[in-house]
Design brief:
With 146 residues, the protein is mainly alpha-helical. The chain is built from seven helices and no strands.
């Protein structure tokens, strides 16, 4: 939720269905990334697109995660106040507006979508993995707690 407030400008309730679905998709994708088919997809995407396997589910999940992200960006575009950015998305949208005439600008919707997702995934992934490992260490060595 801290990452969400920085990137999306809002916190989600822990019972929020969309948020829980997003977390489930992220966890499932983490597991699917270890499959050999997914590894092969990284090297041979054109061939692997036609073959069944867990990489197909990973791609479907990724599309759903992208859709979640795009819905938030579209909502931000509708409610944007250029004088008062609420979060990363608003700041990026403001910069996109400033760079509108520049044909070489990297401030595009595609870049916004990718960067927003990268920030969210990096923040949530590393934080949850660090907490999991910390708890496992505390379980194995309970004398550290005292």
């Amino acid at each position: 939720n801290i990452i969400c407030s920085i990137v999306f400008g809002a916190r989600f309730e822990y019972e929020d269905e969309k948020f829980l679905t997003l977390i489930d998709l992220l966890e499932e994708n983490n597991k699917l990334q270890n499959a050999i088919q997914t590894q092969l997809y990284n090297f041979f995407p054109t061939v692997m697109e036609y073959l069944p396997g867990p990489h197909q589910k990973l791609m479907k999940n990724t599309k759903k995660i992208d859709q979640f992200n795009l819905e938030i960006i579209v909502e931000h575009q509708k409610t944007l106040d250029p004088t008062c950015p609420r979060d990363f998305i608003d700041a990026f949208l403001n910069k996109m507006e400033q760079e509108k005439g520049n044909g070489h600008s990297e401030f595009t919707m595609e870049t916004l979508s990718r960067t927003t997702l990268d920030l969210f995934l990096a923040g949530t992934g590393t934080t949850s993995i660090t907490l999991r490992h910390g708890l496992l260490i505390l379980q194995k060595y309970p004398e550290i707690v005292g």
